[in-house]
Design brief:
- This protein is mainly β.
- It folds into three domains: 52-165, Methylamine Dehydrogenase, Chain H (7 Propeller), CATH 2.130.10.10; 168-257, Thrombin, subunit H; 261-371.
- It has one helix and 32 strands.
- A four-stranded antiparallel β-sheet has the order 1-32-31-30, with no helix packed on it. Strands 2-3-4-5 form a four-stranded antiparallel β-sheet, with no helix packed on it.
- Strand 10 and strand 11 form a beta hairpin.
- It is globular.
Amino acid sequence: MEANRRTAKKKRRATLRTLPLVILFLLVGAGIVAAALLLGRSAVSSAHLTELPFTPAENAVYTGQGFLYIKDSVLYYDDLTNDKNSYHAQVSSPDVKLCGSPTLHALYNAAALKIVNATYPVEFTGTLKYVACGASCVAALKADNAGAESIQVFDKTGAQKDQLAFEGQFIENYGFYTAAGSEYLYVLTMSLDSGAPLTTITIYDMTRSSTSGVMQVQNQLIERTDFTATGIYAVGTNQIIRYSLEGNRESYREMVYGWTVTDYELASSPMYLLRPRSTEKPGTVKVLTLRDAEVKGTSQRLYQLPAGTVGAFLMGGRLVAVTDNGYTVFGADGKQADARTFPVSVKSAKKLDSSTLLLSTDTACYTARVG
């Protein structure tokens, strides 16, 4: 028994002597793991920015595939997908505006329109106010000397295809979209003849050069229109109204009164980002997902934006909030899924596509990929 007690006592002394070493090894190991985690976080927490060759003060537009910009009286096009499509050309007048699509680029001022690669410019009587580029056509909004507005449509050579007039109505907005391989021109006009706003959405089939649909909305303003392969969405001050693309029949309405749409994305379904109409810089926003079908089906989720948010966007089916020093990605469950920091102080942000941001500082512009 005495021998057993002496053996146990020796074991306890040996354990006590080795215990500090064990604790030291554990602390060192924990430190190594923590350092690795910190290094890993710092390695993935900084967003990669690509500086662009123009500044926020210079004339530049995104075409959907690259950047058109003017620098020192030279027009540049930098194609982000294929550098072989990039070009530059001398600009005779510095007082021009730019517009572009992935396939057509144009310059214009109040008197003339020049489609890139067309032989001759198009000259206007009256005042040229705005130009939109589609896949194969260019639409120019002009006002004649009496102030009456019309839209003239040209092909890529500069030849006029059509002229659209809207007597007694104000042209609010217009643009191109493509569905089922066909190109369409949509025009939003508004009339106040009845005392209450009446918005008309007119759809033109550019392939057939004919009207393919007319929709009218009363007692609310239509602020934007969005398109899918099967539906047309009219976003109003009170409701979002879905129409079928075939036949332009109304499918359903979703109430959005008190909210204003700030962004749209067609992910697996149409998604809208809304902020309270009462504030320009909200702390809370709402993501509304609609069913792209004849039967109504919606879901929505509220998100709390980080302090100092300068822009919030729908990108890849997720909400991305941009601050002056980074961005945060929120998943469909409302939780933070990712975050990155910026090496520069950002003043403003725009969404170029579902994975790319355009960031501006006081003196430079950058693109940032959102993974």
